[in-house]
Amino acid sequence: MPLTKIFVSLLLSGWMMMGGAYAQKYATQSAKAIKLYEKGNEYFQARRFDDGVAALLKAVAIDEQFIEAHYKLATTYQLFQEYEESAKYFRKVIDLAPQDARYQSVYNLVASQELQKGNYTQAQEIARRGKGLNLKNTQHVAKAEEILATCEYALEGKKNPLDFRPQSLPSPLNEFQVQYFPVLTGDEQMIIYTVHKEDETEDLFVSYQQDGKWTAPQPLSPQINTPDNEGTCSISADGQVLVFTYCANLKLRRSFGDCDLYISYRQGKQWSEPQNLGPNVNSAAKDTQPALSADGNTLYFASNRKGSLGGLDLWVSRRDADGKWQLAENLGPTFNTAGSEVSPFIHANNRYLYFSSNGRPAQSYGGYDLYQSEWVNRAWTTPQNLGYPVNDHADQVALFITTDGKKAYYTFEEKIGGRKAYKSVLKVFDIPEAIQPKIKSNYVKGYVYDAKTRRAWKPKSAFLT
pTM for the full model? Predict the structure, then answer.
């Protein structure tokens, strides 16, 4: 049972906490079960995780009433993201000790797991039980109320599903196990997306429409991609300007923080050497997931810098008449919450802003959902959930909408077996009319010819709104 390092310290601290808290009294009288339980604790402290789990399983086999062992198994499986096993042992704890104050948090944990699976009715029932038990614990009550609010919203929203028929993008796209965050040019003839490679780094890949088919995806450019991580980009409608995220491991580029935003310009078939967007845009924190407006003068992005209201917030920087990017501003509480807001996308009409958030439990189907806000009377409207089943219990974290507002591209992620093993594919769907942008745009591209010589100048493009 291979384990990732990210869980090791969490698991050890959890074991030490539970071992110390409950060592004085156990729910079992079996000396053999207690010995196995304590031996398991020793195994975990020695980082012999498989042996620790095996000892716990033997302990509960000897005495099914051994609550502490069930609880440790549940939390262990949860930390390793084995949620089915985790839920089984958490439920056992509830069955054995429904009124035990030591396990007050278990109700919300089980309710959250049911919510993650889209079992809204079951999550609702368990959260209500836990809320009734924990009236004196404001933290548990607040969490239960969040779960109940999400369940109520989701159950009501599912009564009126949208016409949602996503399709995977055709071969040769989706040839990698993990690819995400697709963006397209205004004419939809070029697509760029991020590929998570086998060496655990990210690069940008590009494909073009030729004779109605996509070409084999290739690395975007040696000027863009490095041995570090490049991804989550935004491309101008004419395909000439690229803003992308660079996360430094080897420090091959000058950067202000762990992840910075860079800009590059297309010159013929080549891309210019990327330039850091500077300290007015980037910070010592994480700056990522850019969204460039159609006119190239406004840049939205996600950052957890000082001044954020929650985890990642949405920020904006505007370019002045001299071409300089101004100091980034937080988009404020209209968009940002105590949770995280990510992957902004500004439509070509510059009137609709889309993003993903996990901080709106009373207007959510669970996890990260996609929202839309409209610029009206010089202000952004209250964001609205895009609805079911565009959003569901899983995480929906990014969307790209075509210039005419009729199609949307996104990433669909699914587990393929094994701990943390998953696959993500690029998909497209026709946007249901009820959530299409009210203000549409059309992208026009053509050539300008000299009236005398008939010589063609470079292609010109424009938006018709």
Answer: 0.87
